[in-house]
Specification:
The chain contains eleven helices and nine strands. By secondary structure, the protein is of the alpha/beta class. The strands form two sheets. The protein has a six-stranded mixed beta sheet, sandwiched between helices. The protein has a three-stranded mixed beta sheet with strand order 5-7-8. Helix 1 runs parallel beside helix 3, helix 2 packs antiparallel against helix 10 and helix 4 packs across helix 5. The radius of gyration is 18 Å and the shape is globular. The model has no long low-confidence stretch (mean pLDDT about 90).
Amino acid sequence: MSYQFLQLEQHGLVAYVWLNRPELHNAFNTTVIEELHTCFKQLAIRDDIRIVVLAGRGKSFSAGADLNWMKQAGQACAEENEADALKLAQMLEALATLKQPTIARVHGIAFGGGMGLASACDICIASTDAKFATSEVRLGLTPSTISPYVIRAIGARQASRYFLTAERITAHAAKQIGLAHEIADAEDLDKKVQEIIDALLLGGPHAQAASKQLIQMVSNQSMDNQLLRQTAHHIAQVRQGSEAKEGLTAFLSKQAPAWTSNSNNNN
């Protein structure tokens, strides 16, 4: 199958899914989300694929949501807004529940939904130049649909800091908090990814799939349809609010949102 914004490559037993919208740092829009969802669903039924590597073309892994798309979604009616958000939640679930082990190969920025993709993968290997962030609050938004995967990766305590401050997380800090399993210099990133692939290929595919099911079964909260709808409903409501509209408009027009000037006046 051909894709507009993805490249799918197979090298032996390994599928490489490349986000391919480099001019916009591989930001999501409706088409990107739909193509990722379709790709993950097709990979899930292929027995000739043992491992899935998710990576990004160009300078970045993924900048998260295309803000023009987010702004348009926020201006839609409530039903359309929530249906749109649910597509993102379902795409992330399709990635998180793939039977094959998944590796995020992260370089450059992984912000917002990009950090969500990295967290939804089983293993995250980051370049030392990588930077992560849940940057949504600075746009008047919340990291709703990615929250189950990010919190699973770094825990509620670390999420309390980064969800609220939207600070950028360096690769070294990402490893310290459990977001990245390994980090490597840019020139050694593919070598490190290959080391993990080689280790994974030593395991039985059915045992690995069963192990992934085991982790989901014993985790605190299952990624069920109710949770998907809760997170989609949450972001859909926030996205339609005045603060989100202000934040997105300010960012796209390269201006500071109103709340930053209010904060400065209080200092």
